[in-house]
Amino acid sequence: MSAEAADPGAPLRRRSRPRIDLRRLGRVALLGPGSRDRLPDAIGHVAEAHRAHHPDADLTILRRAYVLAESSHRGQMRKSGEPYITHPLAVTLILAELGAETTTLTASLLHDTVEDTEVTLDQVREQFGDEVCYLVDGVTKLEKVDYGAAAEPETFRKMLVATGNDVRVMSIKLADRLHNMRTLGVMRPEKQARIAKVTRDVLIPLAERLGVQALKTELEDLVFAILHPEEYEHTRALIAAAAGPDAPLDTIADNVRGTLRDAGISAEVLIRPRHFVSVHRVRRKRGELRGTDFGRLLVLVAEDADCYAVLGELHTCFTPVISEFKDFIAAPKFNLYQSLHTAVVGPGGAVAEVLIRTHRMHKVAEAGVVALGNPYAQDHAAAPQTEPSDERADPTRPGWLSRLLDWQESATDPDTFWTTLRADLAQDREITVFRTDGGTLGLPAGASCVDAAYAQYGDRAHTSIGARVNGRLATLSTVLSDGDTVQLLLAQDTASGPSPDWLDHARTPAARIAITAWLTDHPDEAKPTPSTMTSGPGPAEPAAPERAAQATAPRTRSGPRATGVVVDGPDAPVRLAGCCTPVPPDELTGFVVRGGAVTVHRRECPAVAAMQEIGRAPVGARWADAGGRESDAGCRVTLVAESFGRPRLLADLTEAIATAEAAIVSATVEPPSEQRVRHTYTLQLPDAAGLPALMRAMREVAGVYDVSRAQHPAPAG
Fold first, then answer.
1. Could you write out the DSSP letters of every residue in 309-345?
2. Distance between CA atoms of 171 and 162, rounded to whole angstroms?
3. Annotated catalytic sites, by residue?
4. CB 318 within 8 Å of CB 344
5. Cα(first)–Cα(last) distance of the chain, in Å?
6. Which of 35-49, 377-391, 583-597 has the weakest average pLDDT?
7. What is the pLDDT of residue 712?
8. By C-alpha distance, which of 443, 493, 454 is closest to 476?
9. What is the 3-state secondary structure (H, E, C) of 104-155?
């Protein structure tokens, strides 16, 4: 194919050629031969498609890029037997049909020159400028001779980093992969499967996140045909059988047109066929397919307000299926998608799904970031004025891409990067949570407080001890929902680190990589905290199995002999109950137990109600002196501290207790549950008046969110 086959600089003839429909071309490529026809008129076809979106575009640079590409690739052939220049032309045509601007098309024509010919990046920069050079470099593969097996993952890493600065890099890569997938039939079956799997795991999720639905849906169908040929053929047969002049959607579409015309709403009502994978998903979800399941109605209007006017008319004149309503205009998807979704019941009970959007929304829904032109243009006045001011603009770096670029720096190993990238891209929904300082965090659906901590604080999140979600205390394992407000709680001890359990709740690669790295660097500090501790004159705590059995068996524990307590009735030994360990000025009540002794409880102790239910008569009890003070022997009390688990927590609590001059009779630390730890301490205080100060000191320990007096259930002993 000669470089002089067409002159893109010549004036274009205005012909009534229909616009190329990528979806139709993709369907033709799957349903029959003929998709490899050589492109007519060489660059002229691309130029005409480009002028359809950008009538005033200067095509001189495109012609120069084509001349360089054709001369550089001359003599090279594709495995399909076509001249190699047909590949960059086809990739450029795909992007031109999506509405890409001239710079993207120029780089697309040159995207394989540096990789496969003698052309250098310096030559590209000299002839076409830094911007085109950057895009070409971004999509150029790394040499296998230099990187070996790591060439593919490192190439994708390079492309993603380049995409972080200019999303047009990934637009070219997606179009490149689409054309390669269309012509994949000449490859060996095993190579087809390998390329299809990478496309499924990496390229299709990236197309979804960049909002390029026209490329994403065709890639899905091509992958489906290669990896699941039997299911694909079955779906193909269903679609062919459903095609016909009397399709149920035709009748509903006519009714919708009439309804909107009568309401005075100017709208275009189209029938939008589902692609193969979409039909397959509906069939798996519903079992038997209905006639209306092979497509959806698409209603296109001029303004945002018209979308809601159409919705009102449809819900008034048809029976709506309320469960199918979604408003992606008020709350756009993270990939720029905006539309109203609903479903209505037509004649004969047929249910039709309806999409309502403006023409601009439709363009963005199909082409995603490609439809935004050049979001990095310095001269906004010279940029195409294609986006109304009242519609949403695209950020130059989506939140998911920023997170990806952050964690990839920590994944230095190619295998770790490749595995983590696939797992990250598999999470195809995002949520937004709000920080208490007014900022927001974008996280994948299913993310927990662990993920939020690392998203907000990075490595400082190693010291996380808990969170408040919507004002309530929550564990780090708590799964967040869209719109939640989260406040992360960090320990004051900067030396503390994460628990291995955090990996069970981390969904983001950044969190998993950071936790794994810390645990690898601190193998000794990652060991579980001992579950029991005994100190002082009290007996040792039983082993874990015995303790668990005792915990499930109700019992009354006798406390120390009480001095300073007066009980009504006969002279008998008086003991303070171990289940609630009363101290002045608690209100008291007592019960006679076996052996004639009187056990004294706090009145709110659960054991009091249990005693009364079995018919035990209470015995009056009170503190001996009016000041409510015990004798010099001090008092014994049991406190329960509830906290978030973290290293050194036990040491910090015991230090706080010792500082308050309380002696630990015994202490039990229950096994952690969802990062929460329950500590039970029986303490000997020199004076009951020091109890409030002790409890305050324990609450001030980082990670402790509650300290209370113990109230164990205890029936009569």
1. HHHHHHHHHSEE-GGG-EETTTS--TTS---EEEEEE
2. 12
3. 115-116
4. yes
5. 100
6. 377-391
7. 52
8. 454
9. HHHHHHCCCHHHHCCCCHHHHHHHHCHHHHHHHHHHCCCCHHHHHHHHHHHH
CB 666 within 8 A of CB 682: yes
Question: 585 preceded by cis ω (within 30°)?
Answer: yes
60: exposed, middle or buried (Cβ count in 10 Å: 0-12, 13-18, 19+) = exposed
Decide: 42 and 1 in contact? Cβ < 8 Å.
Answer: yes
- Closest by alpha carbon to 255, among 311, 317, 301, 348? 317
Helix residue ranges, H only, 228-320: 229-242, 248-262, 276-286, 304-317
CA 247 to centroid of chain Cα atoms: 39
Q: Which residues contact 688 (CB under 8 A, 6 or more apart)?
A: 583, 584, 585, 628, 629, 630, 634, 635, 637
Confidence band for 22, pLDDT divided at 50, 70 and 90 = very low
Distance CA 215, CA 238 (A): 23
Q: What is the pTM of this model?
A: 0.64
The CB density around residue 666, as the number of other CB atoms within 10 Å, is 19
| DSSP collapsed to 3 states, 387-422 | CCCCCCCCCCCCHHHHHHHHHHCCCCCHHHHHHHHH
Q: Which residues are registered as beta bridge partners of 341?
A: 326, 355
Dihedral angle sign, alpha carbons of residues 384, 387, 390, 396? negative
Kindly tell me the burial class for residue 118, based on how many C-beta atoms sit within 10 Å of its own C-beta (0-12, 13-18, 19 or more).
exposed
Cα-based distances in Å from 267 to 262, 318, 337, 387: 12, 17, 20, 19
Six token digits for residue 324 = 């199918």
Token couple for 356? 């309502």
Residue 388 has pLDDT above 50, yes or no: no
Please give the pLDDT value at position 581: 72
Q: Are strands 663-669 and 268-273 parallel, antiparallel or unpaired?
A: unpaired
* Amino acid at site 78: R
**For residue 89, what pLDDT band results from cuts at 50, 70 and 90?**
very high
Convert the pLDDT of each residue in 149-163 to its tens digit.
Answer: 788 888 888 888 888
Highest average pLDDT, of 136-150, 248-262, 528-542, comes from 248-262
Distance CA 643, CA 54 (A): 62
Partnered with residue 358 across adjacent β-strands are 301
Of the two residues 414 and 181, the one the predictor is more confident about is 181
pLDDT of residue 209: 86
Tens of pLDDT, residues 259-314 = 999 999 999 999 999 999 999 988 888 778 888 889 999 999 999 999 999 999 99
Q: pLDDT above 70 covers what percent of the chain? A: 80
The pLDDT score that the predictor gives to residue 709 is 80
Strand pairing class (676-685; 295-301): unpaired
